[in-house]
Amino acid sequence: MIELPVFETIRLELDADLLTATLARPSRANAVSRQMLRELIQLADWLDGNEAVRFLILTGDGPIFAAGQDLREMREPLADPAQARAAMRALQRLAQEMMLKLESLEQIAFAVIQGSAYGAGIAIAMTADFRLMADDAVLNLPETNLGMFLTYGATPRLVSVMGASAAKEFVMFARDMSASDALRHGLVNVVTPCADLMEAAVAQVNELREKDFRSLRITKRIAQAASAVNVGDILVSEPELCEGTLSDGTTLELVDRFFANK
Asked: What pTM, to 2 d.p., does this model score?
């Protein structure tokens, strides 16, 4: 019997060779905290080389996939100029490590998006090989409304999937994207009623279970290598961009305005 790790922000369930990892901060709409980032890295490390687990489903607890970066947590260092620059740089290095480790897993991964996904939640979903989305769910990248830019190395990944023009529109205008538009742009692979989401994901896992797993694993590796163009440059520059841009006081002002308007 496989002993599963225990986390504070992620709930794990194992069914044969399928692991379901549920982002579980329901009181914060599954907002992505530093602790969650660390635990996602630990989960990836645990899965690395674990041949008994071949498939992974990432989903969120309750009616929402993930609300994005935990702005209340992020606000603390922004309020202290002495902390802000180093804290923003460190956060991006942690986020980039999470992204690289999750998308490099040998397990075939599915993101199941119910309700909505924002910012960092979308980035986490993008590490999966396949994404399934509820037909009434929405995606949104609110960063430009908050004096930020899309981080986690997610912009080049979006460009790789959507093309540069569509990716710029999605990020810059910060509009809701419907499930049908996400499907049209290739951001998701399947759209289905929310009640059928998990069943649809398991059906895809079952279909892949009938195939030679080594062939699936090699195909994933080749596809990942082919789509990794331009990611390396942003890994170098993004922490430094965050260090300066997010710590100049503008982001703090807009984050406070966001909370005041809630």
From this structure: 0.91
